[in-house]
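agent> Task received from the user: take the single chain below, predict its 3D structure, and emit structure tokens. No templates, no multimer pairing.
agent> Plan: (1) validate residues, (2) run structure prediction, (3) serialize to tokens, (4) report one or two observations.
agent> Step 1 OK, no nonstandard residues flagged.
tool_call: predict_structure(input=
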Amino acid sequence: MTCLLEPPFRCLPPFSPPRFRCFAAPRAQPQPSEPDTETLVLPLDGPKERREIVRLAWEKLVRWSRSLQSRAKTDVLERTNKIVVLGGGSFGTAIAAHVATRKSLLEVNMLVRDPQVCRSINEEHHNCKYFPQHELPKNVIATTDAKAALLGADFCFHAVPVQFSSSFLEEIANYVDPGLPFISLSKGLELNTLRTMSQIIPKALKNPRQPYVVLSGPSFALELMNKLPTALVVASKDQKIANSVQQLMASKNLRINTSRG
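)
tool_result: status=success, residues=261
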């Protein structure tokens, strides 16, 4: 019997290509730049120096905040070309006179019912019924035409007494832009329904989303006319509109605070 011996075979592992490792080139070290001349560097050797740095940083923050507020105020005044005041009573007249002094090119329309009051404002620059001794700015214009008064207005100040507001607003509803912010100066409740102005305005205008702001506070119309220090509060669910009204009206003699209504 013959035995055939097969030569031994050795199994080699499958060929795998050599692995290469990549090395990133060393980054160049940045060259030292010249020191910022606007940055004040103080040694931190003690609490006195640290307090000085905090003081300088705080002053810089305050300056930046005031600059930002100043630009915002300027933007609101620049964008506002026309406002309308509904009503020719004492407070409506005072508000019209005050806002008119904020910008000489601002058109301030007063919508009044009495033709005699309308003529006295346009021809003599006085409200013959209220404040006949006070001269109104030249950019205060009175009219009895609701359509002309409301056309192109950026803000609307409502100064009609509460008891007559519902019927008055229903008459002019067709001329009111749905996005026109209403700033209510009227105080009190409607006697028959006990509704507030926040309920009267949207229902009378048939627009539940009419922008609405309340302007109120411990102030008198005579104080505004005499430019005495006065304070008012602007309240609204829309903080942006409240801030715009604040920036539109705030002045050296009138302080406007905002509140979330």
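agent> Step 4: summary for the user.
The helical segments are 47-79, 90-102, 115-124, 146-150, 162-172, 197-205, 221-225, 239-249.
agent> Done.
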